[in-house]
Design a protein that fits this description.
alpha+beta; Fructose-1,6-Bisphosphatase, Chain A, domain 1; D-Maltodextrin-Binding Protein, domain 2; 2 domains; eight-stranded mixed beta sheet; 34% helix; 26% strand; inositol-phosphate phosphatase; Inositol_monophosphatase_CS
């Protein structure tokens, strides 16, 4: 199945952002990401599951580190940006966040089950979001000693080095998928028929980031929260990847289902998804 898409045709131009705010937000977010990377590196997998508790399932963990990092993030942001509310995974949304011109969105440890197990695939994610989507996105990837940072109109950098994706076909590439069991098997089967590999590694933020870095041709996600993906979608968009919803409509921050793909791979990946 080939689905012809023109991802920029209906995408509204993003709202302008004051340059000083962009620069300051990038600086503060980068500082917080470095702080988080140090904490995660020092504590991942230590004492096994001590200090960790389940949320809704045995694979949905919350740890002391989640709470500590989110509290630290909120304290710093309240001091540096007192008029901007914060939405976080562990402590919810500040009053007025839904209608505010800007909001910070933080996931202190994305991939907590991996973190608890000492599996090197978890991240800290922070984004500044407005009505047009992510304005600034920063991801700390502690296991690879990398900080990825992007701002609207300024591109994306990995440890200070500019990154840009190149168009490529899906064939021979990898797709990072975070899907429900009911959709995963069929999607993987269709991808395999297209000679494309699937990787399921347990962090939505890092799944999308692999597309921004050019390591994967696409990421396909469903059932995520805004804090899981906001920072990484900023990276992807600024690196030149395409971000669409499950129907292929351009959306800088889709809800429910998201496909992020390098140019040249979207039609194939979207076809595998929409085939059911």
């Amino acid at each position: 199945m080939t689905v012809q898409q023109h991802p920029t045709a209906s995408a509204a131009p993003p709202l302008p952002v004051e340059p000083g705010l962009l620069s300051r937000a990038l600086e503060v977010a980068g500082r917080l990401a470095n702080d988080a990377a140090e904490v995660i590196t020092a504590t991942a997998g230590r004492d096994h599951q001590d200090g960790a508790a389940h949320k809704e399932s045995p694979f949905d963990w919350v740890t002391d580190t989640d709470h500590t990092l989110e509290r630290h993030t909120r304290r710093v942001l309240a001091s540096e940006f007192p008029g901007i509310p914060v939405v976080g995974e562990e402590f919810g949304a500040d009053a007025g966040a839904a209608g505010a011109p800007y909001r910070w969105v933080v996931d202190p440890v994305d991939g907590t089950a991996n973190y608890v197990a000492g599996f090197p695939w978890c991240a800290y994610s922070l984004a500044l979001v407005d009505a047009s989507g992510p304005v600034v996105g920063v991801i700390a990837d502690p296991s690879r000693a990398q900080i990825y940072a992007a701002a609207r109109g300024r591109g994306v950098r990995a440890n200070g080095v500019a990154v840009r994706v190149a168009p490529r076909a899906s064939t021979g590439g990898l797709v990072c998928a975070e899907l429900s069991p009911g959709r995963a098997a069929g999607f993987a089967r269709r991808a395999a028929a297209g000679h494309t590999g699937i990787r399921v590694l347990g962090s939505s933020a890092l799944a999308i980031t692999q597309v921004a870095l050019g390591h994967a041709v696409a990421a396909v996600l469903e059932g995520y929260q805004e804090w899981d993906v906001a920072g990484a979608t900023c990276l992807a968009a600024e690196a030149g990847a395409l971000v669409v919803d499950g129907a292929g409509r351009p959306d800088p921050l889709p809800t429910g289902t998201m496909i992020v793909a390098v140019p040249g791979a979207l039609d194939d990946v979207l076809g595998w998804w929409t085939a059911g």
